Amino acid sequence: MKNVIRFIAFVLILFLVLFVFIKYTIYGIIFIAVALVAVGVYDLIQTKHTILRNFPIIGHMRYILEGISPEIRQYFVESDTDGKPLNRNQRSYIYSRAKLQHTKHPFGTEHDLQREQIEWARHSMYPAKVLNTPPRVRVGGKDCLQPYESSIFNISAMSYGSLSKNAILALNKGAAAGGFYHNTGEGSVSPYHLQGGDLVYQIGTGYFGCRAEDGRFDPEKYKVTSAIPEVKMIELKLSQGAKPGHGGILPAVKNNEEIAAIRGVIPHTEIDSPNAHREFNSALGLLEFIKTLRDLSGGKPVGFKLCIGSKDEFIDICEEMVSTNITPDFITIDGAEGGTGAAPIIFSDHVGMPYENALIFVVDTLRKYKLEDEIKIVVAGKLIDGFSIFKALCLGADIVNTGRGMMLALGCIQALECDKNTCPTGVATDNPTLVRGLVVEDKYKRVANYHRETVKDFLELFAAAGCTDLNQLNRSYIFKQMNNQVVGFQERYPDVCAI
Ligand SMILES: Cc1cc2nc3c(=O)[nH]c(=O)nc-3n(C[C@H](O)[C@H](O)[C@H](O)COP(=O)(O)O)c2cc1C
Q1: How far is the CA of 338 from the centre of ligand 1 (A)?
Q2: Is the model's pLDDT at 20 over the cut of 80?
Q3: Cβ neighbours of residue 487 under 8 Å, at least 6 residues apart?
Q4: Residues 175, 443: contact at Cβ < 8 Å?
């Protein structure tokens, strides 16, 4: 129906333009000629663009086409398995679940099942009954006084500032409707986060929400923020997959007065969170800081997030946990394939360990040090569908987060403009004209739908594997085609592999 109305409107406008042009042809031609001459003269005398000086008027085509090339590729050129970071099939998976449309696929797989790196799950001849209620995971170790029962699938850290206020409102309302958590990202808790959804309050190197005037950690402010009832857990961010070791960037164009006030910084300036924490610089320092955060919060679960770089540094932390008996309640592993609002490209492309290797390493290391019962493992890195959740849980994760999956559920079209404040869907911009387009009352339902339907997909796969309890999952359920051979994850990564 909507498309029919759009088509009729288009035809009417076309007739109107043709009518005006025919009626006033001569004036139209003079106007266009004068405008073209003016543009041509300007192009010749300007000194910024060589192409325009050498090819006046016509040279503009290059800039116009360059500007819309992502859209042209997406609408006309891209195949179902093309498109980066998320291909069309992955995007359609999310859209269809968010909108509750066409969640089934006709006529069989479109994948080449013999291709390198293809993965599959082991099903059982005796599938189990599909669970009606999705299982929940208890987060909270021996020192935690307020354990949290988490969904297996949640909203990964994305700040108010990198996302719009309507996006945050819709995510939080979606989390409240679907019973899963919403990680605030390092930009602190804003009023838009308080719509009833459970929160994980993330603290980055900028200490937003608990920042003293000199930029260091302020325990009193932290007590206030962590005491917010919606804050169920606290996550200390060491690094993220898209820019490990770099720190956060909030571009000046997105740092408006309100965001600056929430974060305690100067508006309209680029905010570069330092690449390292000022409160600690060793494994012991990290664990003592975690203990401080847990004590000051009244015993809420506290964890840390990182993208794995040096294995030795992680092993060092585990050894320190054993000798001090201080453990985090959870560790969040972000794969190098993770997303971001803005990052230097060499960091996104060439720094950090991908999620699969990192997850296996962390799980095995915690098992080796007998820490696996104390510490829950959360993981993210393009894990956007039911199979990704199944695989991550089989490899040893307890909980999966998604950032870009939730952005797509909000209507993101992967325009790749998160850092320019021009996001056409109002998800990653603070431009009010664009933000207006994102209708919270509609989009929060899509966030909840995407979550529910994806978890449902997981549960169907879980049942097909013959499972009824999350503890049954292990690496023997996952296979991969590698170097022309079928490789079982159980054989490739026996539970405690050589670290
Ligand atoms: C727009 C955007 C903003 C993000 N902001 C943060 C942040 O503030 N803190 C953080 O730890 N990670 C941040 N991330 C990373 C995500 O939390 C997540 O770890 C990563 O994108 C992997 O999940 P995905 O592949 O499902 O997107 C951001 C990602 C995006 C796309």
Answers
A1: 6
A2: no
A3: 479, 480, 481
A4: no
> Which residue owns the Cα nearest ligand 1 atom 26?
402
Please tell me which residue, 111 or 478, carries the higher pLDDT value.
478
Q: State the distance from the centre of ligand 1 to the C-alpha of 262, rounded, in angstroms.
A: 19
| CB-based pocket (< 6 A), ligand 1 | 156-159, 162, 185-186, 202, 237, 240-241, 305, 334, 338-341, 380-382, 402-405, 418, 428
Token couple for 65: 């086409």
Chain segment 424-474, per-residue pLDDT in tens: 999 999 999 999 999 999 999 999 999 999 999 999 999 999 999 999 999
Of ligand 1's listed atoms, the one at least distance from the Cα of 85 is 25
Ligand 1 center–CA 481 separation, angstroms: 29
Burial of residue 357 (CB within 10 Å: 0-12, 13-18, 19+) is middle
Token duo for residue 36:
């073209």
Phi and psi at 335, nearest 5°, equal -75, 155
The string over 166-191, giving b where at least 16 C-beta atoms fall within 10 Å of a residue's C-beta and e elsewhere, is bbbbbbbbbbbbbbbbbbbbbbbbbe
When mean pLDDT is compared across 245-249, 345-349, 392-396, the lowest value belongs to 245-249
pLDDT value at 81 more than 90: no
Nearest residue (CA) to ligand 1, atom 9: 185
Atom of ligand 1 nearest to the CA of 159: 8
pLDDT at residue 123, rounded to an integer: 98
